[in-house]
Automatic annotation (TrEMBL):
<feature type="domain" description="SAM-dependent methyltransferase TRM5/TYW2-type">
    <location>
        <begin position="80"/>
        <end position="328"/>
    </location>
</feature>
<keyword id="KW-0819">tRNA processing</keyword>
<dbReference type="GO" id="GO:0005737">
    <property type="term" value="C:cytoplasm"/>
</dbReference>
<keyword id="KW-0949">S-adenosyl-L-methionine</keyword>
<keyword id="KW-0963">Cytoplasm</keyword>
<dbReference type="InterPro" id="IPR056744">
    <property type="entry name" value="TRM5/TYW2-like_N"/>
</dbReference>
<dbReference type="InterPro" id="IPR040601">
    <property type="entry name" value="Trm5a/b_N"/>
</dbReference>
<dbReference type="Pfam" id="PF25133">
    <property type="entry name" value="TYW2_N_2"/>
</dbReference>
<dbReference type="GO" id="GO:0002939">
    <property type="term" value="P:tRNA N1-guanine methylation"/>
</dbReference>
<dbReference type="Pfam" id="PF02475">
    <property type="entry name" value="TRM5-TYW2_MTfase"/>
</dbReference>
<dbReference type="InterPro" id="IPR029063">
    <property type="entry name" value="SAM-dependent_MTases_sf"/>
</dbReference>
<dbReference type="InterPro" id="IPR030382">
    <property type="entry name" value="MeTrfase_TRM5/TYW2"/>
</dbReference>
<keyword id="KW-0808">Transferase</keyword>
<dbReference type="Pfam" id="PF18093">
    <property type="entry name" value="Trm5_N"/>
</dbReference>
<protein>
    <submittedName>
        <fullName>Class I SAM-dependent methyltransferase family protein</fullName>
    </submittedName>
</protein>
<keyword id="KW-0489">Methyltransferase</keyword>
<dbReference type="InterPro" id="IPR056743">
    <property type="entry name" value="TRM5-TYW2-like_MTfase"/>
</dbReference>
């Protein structure tokens, strides 16, 4: 079907579409098209569009029968991830980030906020700075495997990319277990483990993370099985020596520094989930050696149950997990 369309450079696509929509000229029943660096926006009144100063051409268009993806507006496939109703970009070029954000807002991607990473994860609380490109705040509710997690990306660390890995570990938990989550964040391990019937001791140094953790335990109906401790796990858990059947150590760059505490917390038969960053030539050796160096002198036998590559982190560097069972000899 031939339709009158406003023709404009792709970089002006969002501004053009928004202006046409404001004038009630946008034909929402026809698909926007992108070709050779130009965007073609269907309109309902060619004469009115020309009077408004736009170039109008007649063009074959198709009926709009589904969501409009950002690529249709941009002319290329952007890279982004979603966390609740926040869309997260990772663009070095601020102009490109703005262009992608505008296209996402124009598309049918459901979101309230678009942010671009402005720094690396840093500091004791493992948070980063963000450029807010659309929306009014950085708080959201993320849903993962049937659970809800309120969080603010500007105040806490959270990676939606690790959902599958978290689920893998959670599925190992049985009712009645006693679990220590040494670096719990807002509770993506602790809450679903408690939902499976475990008693969970969840620790974090970040006050905001602990605040959201407690909220999320209430939100998911497991507050009676989650004990949240604010502060360094090495200093807050003296009353829990020998208590744990399972210990989650998801602090990949430095979890090995906490192995003395993990072994102190372990009962006679305990599973450790140690996350590590290691070179691809020997991804699991450093973690296994570190566990043995601490656990064996403390009287434990060490059995490596699972060696798992979680994701590629940097060139030749992997984020890995070791599931290790330690038993009193």
């Amino acid at each position: 079907m031939t339709t009158p369309c406003v023709r404009a450079p792709v970089r002006e696509g969002e501004a053009t579409r928004a202006a046409l929509a404001e004038r009630d000229l946008l034909d929402g029943d026809r698909e926007i098209a992108v070709e050779d660096g130009e965007i073609f926006v269907p309109v309902v009144d060619a004469a009115a569009a020309r009077e408004a100063g736009y170039e109008v051409v007649d063009r074959e268009t198709t009926e709009r029968d589904g969501p409009t993806p950002p690529a249709e507006v941009l002319g290329f496939e952007p890279s982004y991830e979603r966390l609740g109703d926040i869309v997260i970009l990772d663009e070095d070029d601020p102009e490109r980030a703005r262009e992608i954000a505008d296209a996402i807002v124009e598309s049918d991607v459901p979101c309230e906020t678009v942010v671009n990473r402005a720094s690396k994860v840093a500091g004791e609380y493992r948070v980063r700075e963000w450029d807010l490109l659309h929306g009014e705040g950085t708080e959201t509710v993320h849903r993962e495997y049937g659970h809800e997690f309120a969080l603010d990306v500007a105040e806490v660390y959270f990676s939606p990319r690790l959902a599958t890995e978290r689920h893998r570990v959670v599925e190992q938990v049985e009712a009645g277990e006693r679990v220590v989550d040494m670096f719990a964040g807002v509770g993506p391990f602790a809450v679903p483990m408690a939902a499976r019937g475990a008693d969970v001791l969840a620790c974090d140094v970040n006050p905001a993370a602990i605040r959201y953790l407690r909220e999320n335990a209430e939100r998911n109906g497991v507050a009676d099985r989650v004990t949240a401790l604010e502060g360094d796990v090495r200093e807050t858990t003296a009353d829990y020596d020998g208590w744990a059947d399972r210990v989650v150590m998801n602090l990949p760059h430095s979890a090995d520094e906490f192995l003395d505490t993990a072994v102190r917390l372990a009962g006679d038969d305990c599973v450790l989930h140690l996350y590590d960053m290691a070179h691809e030539d020997d991804p699991f050796g450093p973690g296994e050696r570190a566990i043995r160096e601490v656990a064996e002198p403390a009287g434990y036998e060490v059995e490596v149950v699972t060696k798992r590559e979680v994701r590629s982190y940097a060139p030749h560097e992997l984020n890995v997990c070791l599931d290790v069972r330690i038993r009193r000899a």
